[in-house]
Amino acid sequence: MRTALLAAAACVVAIGIVTGQAGAPAARNVRGGVEESKSTSAAVPDWSGVWQMVGPTVFDRATVQPQNGRAGDPGVREFPPYTDEYEAIYRKNIERIKAGTFPDPISVCGVPHGFPRIMNVPDVYEFAVTPAATYVLAENGPGILRIYTDGRKHPPAEELWGTYTGASVGHWEGDTLVFETRGLKESRDNDVIVDRTGLVLSDAAKVATRMRKVNDMMMEAAITVEDSKALKAPWKVTKQYRKLPAGTWAWDYGCAENNRNPISNSGKTLTLGPDGKPIDKNTN
User: Is 257 exposed, middle or buried (0-12, 13-18, 19+ CB in 10 A)?
Assistant: First the structure.
């Protein structure tokens, strides 16, 4: 009888351990100031597949004028709540676009798009979702955005220097990824823009994003930009991404392979024809 009771008790303990109901708490590990669970079974949404942004690469499609305007076309602009200083910078960039002398930093094929521009590029995206982090992989690159959801906090201000994509920390609210991005260099070094209409932000920018899958075929990112130097009020923009057919590939993006367009003495980028000679009417 005693032997039977001991055997039954052992079975109960074993079942409790397998189902995660044992009395002792799960072992945890602290690394780099972040408490990490050894379990990776936390449920995360399925964002698999290949996705493409809906519409052209105008960042704020709700305010663009003309309504069907495309980033990089002369006279096209958006209407963020700019301060007077940054409105003047934007107007100057618009005039440079009209003259064909506005430089897009990524044209040199060596720097990342930066954030939030990485959420507004052509070609395709993949989203790698894990309990500890989500990775936004943009084919048009180099472009990787890392969003940590492992419980860490943003680095202290004295350790948070400006980078292209900044430091993104977030958490899940149901099926919505909520994250804030700080530590952005933006236009500080004149090598980050928001889109080819000439939009720029300052190194004081911070961005809050709520990202979710609306349905099986559509992803949405609700972006709110705050910038004490460049903006008078929060700037809210929504981007959408549609899922492409199963089996769609994302490829390497070798921008430098086509980095052959010469620059004129006035700073204008020239276009070469099949014979390797400029096809522009005015090459000055």
Answer: exposed
Residue 33: phi, psi to the nearest 5? Answer: 80, 5
Contact between 281 and 273 under an 8 Å Cβ cutoff? The reply is: no
Environment class of residue 216 by beta-carbon count within 10 Å: exposed (0-12), middle (13-18) or buried (19+)? Answer: exposed
Torsion of CA 116, 122, 128, 132, to 10 degrees: 0
CA 184/CA 163 separation, integer angstroms: 5
Q: Is residue 144 within 8 Å of residue 114, measured between CB atoms?
A: no
Distance CA 27, CA 84 (A): 55
Chunked in runs of 10, what are the mean pLDDT values of the chain (284 residues)? 42 38 40 43 86 96 94 95 98 94 82 94 95 95 91 94 96 97 93 95 97 98 98 98 96 72 77 82 74
Burial annotation 65-99 (CB, 10 A radius, 16+ → b, else e) = eeeebebbeeebbbebbbbeebeebbeebbeebee
* Alpha-carbon dihedral sign for residues 76, 80, 82, 84: positive
Using the structure block, give the residue that is written with the tokens 């720097």. Answer: 111
Give the global pTM. Answer: 0.78
DSSP 134-159: EEEEESSSS-EEEEE-SS--PPPGGG
Sign, CA dihedral 85-183-132-130, equals positive
Q: What are phi and psi of 191, to 5 degrees?
A: -130, 20
